[in-house]
Specification:
Length: 218
C-alpha cells in the first residue's frame, strides 16, 4: 500500500456501523467531510458533527445507501460479515474508496487504511502498520507528539520566509540554504516551542547570520 493524503472537503463519507469503531471513524472524518452513519443502534459515545440514521441495512439494501449519499469513501464497521462483504463489493464496483474495519489483511483493491495521525498546525505525520498492529501505531503516535511540537509554527515561518526571500530576489539556491539552516536551527525550534516573547528576535538573529553582510534582511 502507498500512503496518500486525500482532501475530503465537501465530500461525503458513509459509515456503516454505530459501535465504538464506527464512532471513532466518524469523528475522524467529521473534521473535514460530510459524514453519514447508518446503524440500527448507536453506542453512547461522541460521533462528532455527523448525520446519524437509525436503520439496519441488509446486504441487498447496501446499494441504496450508496445511491442516497454518493460517498467518496465508505467505512464498513458493522458486526455482520455479509453486510460488510456487500459494502466492499458495491464500493469496488462503483470505484469508491473503502475502509473495512473488520479486516486487517487481504484487503480489496481500492481499500484504505486510516492511520494513526499526529498534527501540529499544517504538519501531519501518519503511522500505519497496514492495519495489523493498531497498538503499535498508537504507541508511535504518542512518541511523535513531543517531537512534532512547534512543527506547525516552523512550517508557517518557512513559507513566510520563502516569500520574503523571493521578493528580495535572493538566488533560489541561496533561498534553499537559508530556509534549511532555519529549519536546522536549535535556537529557532526552542523559541517556537516555548512561545517566548523574544521568538522574533531569535529568528532575526539566525537570519542575520545567513544573509550577506550589508544585505537587506527580511
Amino acid at each position: 500500500m502507498i500512503p496518500l493524503v486525500h482532501d475530503f472537503t465537501d465530500a461525503t463519507v458513509l459509515v456503516f456501523g454505530g459501535g465504538p469503531v464506527g464512532a471513532r471513524k466518524a469523528r475522524r472524518f467529521a473534521s473535514e467531510a460530510d459524514v453519514v452513519v447508518v446503524s440500527p443502534a448507536f453506542v453512547d459515545r461522541e460521533f462528532g458533527d455527523v448525520e446519524r440514521i437509525r436503520a439496519a441495512p441488509d446486504p441487498e439494501a447496501v446499494e441504496t445507501w450508496f445511491d442516497r449519499t454518493t460517498p467518496a469513501l465508505v467505512v464498513a464497521a458493522t458486526d455482520d460479515t455479509q453486510v460488510n462483504e456487500a459494502i466492499a463489493t458495491t464500493a469496488r464496483e462503483r470505484g469508491v474508496l473503502l475502509n473495512r474495519a473488520d479486516r486487517a489483511g487481504g484487503r480489496e483493491p481500492g481499500s484504505v487504511v486510516v492511520p494513526a495521525t499526529v498534527r501540529d498546525g499544517d504538519v501531519t505525520v501518519s503511522i500505519s502498520t497496514g492495519g495489523g498492529a493498531p497498538a503499535l501505531s498508537k504507541y508511535l503516535r504518542t512518541e511523535l507528539e513531543e517531537t512534532l511540537a512547534g512543527a506547525g509554527s516552523m512550517a508557517t515561518l518557512c513559507a513566510s520566509l520563502r516569500e520574503q526571500l523571493k521578493s528580495m530576489d535572493v538566488d533560489p539556491s541561496r533561498r534553499r540554504k537559508i530556509v534549511t539552516d532555519v529549519v536546522n536551527s536549535p535556537a529557532v525550534w526552542t523559541a517556537l516551542r516555548s512561545g517566548t516573547a523574544n521568538t522574533s528576535q531569535v529568528i532575526e538573529d539566525v537570519l542575520y547570520e545567513q544573509l550577506p553582510v550589508g544585505g537587506e534582511h527580511p
